[in-house]
Amino acid sequence: MSEVTRMGSLKDKIMDMEREEILKALTEHNWVMARAARVLGITERMIGYKVKKYGIRKGGEAEGNL
Fold first, then answer.
1. Residue 13 belongs to some domain of the structure
2. Is 61 within a domain?
3. By C-alpha distance, which of 27, 56, 45, 18 is closest to 36?
4. Angle CA(33)–CA(18)–CA(8) in degrees, nearest 5?
5. Within a domain: 63
6. Counting Cβ atoms within 10 Å, is residue 47 exposed (0-12), middle (13-18) or buried (19+)?
7. What is the CATH number of the domain that holds 22?
8. What is the pLDDT of residues 1-34, one digit of tens each?
9. Count of CB atoms situated within 10 Å of the CB of 54
10. Which of 19, 12, 55 is nearest to 64 (CA)?
11. Residue 16, Cβ neighbours under 10 Å: how many?
């Protein structure tokens, strides 16, 4: 088993970290995407795209696997 397979790729780690930060911001701002986006320094459109991309749901669960 290669080191990359065992530890996961950098891209996977970045995606996991991004998903967690978005989820944290949404939770802290009562799921108001405009506020969460502002805190993260991204647009509302971008946070909407990423919420859909990662399958983020209000319960903190992701839809499907990436």
1. yes
2. no
3. 27
4. 155
5. no
6. buried
7. 1.10.10
8. 455 556 789 999 999 999 999 999 999 999 999 9
9. 19
10. 55
11. 13
Overall domain count for the chain: 1
- Give the closest residue to 56 by CA, choosing from 18, 28, 14: 18
Q: Is residue 2 part of a domain?
A: no
Domain that holds residue 31: 9-54
Question: Max Cα separation, the chain?
Answer: 43
Please provide the distance, in angstroms rounded to a whole number, between the alpha carbons at the two ends of the chain.
Answer: 21
pTM, whole model, 2 decimals? 0.78
Per this entry, what is the length of the chain? Answer: 66
Distance CA 40, CA 54 (A): 16
Give the residue carrying structure tokens 């506020």.
35
Q: Are 26 and 42 contacting, i.e. CB atoms less than 8 angstroms apart?
A: no
